[in-house]
Amino acid sequence: MPLVQDLVFWILSVVAIGAALGVVLVKDLFRSALLLAVVFISVAGFFVLLSAEFLAVVQVLIYVGAISVLFIFGIMLTRNVREGNLPNRLQIPAVLCASLLLVGMIAAAINTDWRPIPNAASQLVDSAQTQSVAGAPAGALGSGYEAPETGLAELLIGDFVLPFEAVSLLLLAALIGGLALARSRGS
Amino acid sequence: MSLESMLVVAAALFAIGLYGALARNNVIAVLMSIEIMFNAVNLTVVAFSKYVAPLALRQEIGSVLTGQVFAVFIITVAAAEIALGLGIVFAMYRNTESVSLSEANQLRH
């Protein structure tokens, strides 16, 4: 089973990084929008691997279903066939900046002692996260642990109710702002 | 598959997105690169919630989901950001007939 997980992980990471490189390097904007959808789908695969199934579904619905389509609309409406997706004059600083950041982040990720949770507990974490949407049946996680009744939903309107309300205000503001931007000046 | 390999993949995605955001001339391409960066951050947060559960795990198993809640908020904010960003791009295209960043030099219309 871990072998299969490793195999899926490597396939997903090659696909994700290759498609992301394609997004920033391909000259045709429409193709890079399609590659962006591939990046989103492989990130959804990563979420399944990380036992975050709910997030994987949300990722497919929102990113692949909505945001990619929005991007394709935007490209179709503003496409300038003559120009395409040209690089600007900041090539060398951009490459330098991104690769420096990459080296720093990789060094930090490898050198830090993360103290991962022990194996016995990770089984527990897995089942708790997997059952977070449906809610775990009583006693499924073994004695001594209080299973979350409704998982993510309980956290969202319990501990995180203030950010939840703030996000709904933000969505309202984005809605009104989008309307105000889209309205032409005369009307 | 371990925490470190997950973090390295997310770091690579983030760096690619940063390069795209800095080095492209088209506003929509820059927005797409920003989306890649958001996804890399989401991956990191979810990986932490799987591999490095907080100490509170001892009292309440629900706290292993905190990272996923963060990811839900990030996805919401990214969706709002992209809707507004494309609105601004359309307004800019209506006024200047161009989506090139080097020609975007005025805020009013």
Can you give a write-up of this model?
- The complex is a heterodimer of chains A (187) and B (109).
- In chain A, 24% of the residues are buried.
- Helix content of chain A is 70%, strand content 0%.
- Chain A has helices spanning 2-25, 29-49, 53-78, 91-111, 119-130, 152-156, 161-182.
- Chain A has seven helices and no strands.
- Chain A folds into two domains: 1-86, Up-down Bundle (Four Helix Bundle (Hemerythrin (Met), subunit A)); 115-187, no CATH class.
- Chain B is mainly α.
- Chain B has helices at 3-23, 27-51, 66-96.
- In chain B, α1 packs antiparallel against α2 (27-51) and α2 (27-51) runs antiparallel to α3.
- The longest helix of chain B is centred in the C-terminal third of the chain and has 31 residues, at 66-96.
- The mean pLDDT of chain B is 85.
- Chains A and B meet through α1, α2, α3, α4 and α5 of A and α1, α2 and α3 of B.
List the helices and strands and how they pair.
The complex is a heterodimer of chains A (187) and B (109).
Chain A: H1 2-25, H2 29-49, H3 53-78, H4 91-111, H5 119-130, H6 152-156, H7 161-182
Chain B: H1 3-23, H2 27-51, H3 66-96
Helix pairs in contact in B: 1-2, 2-3
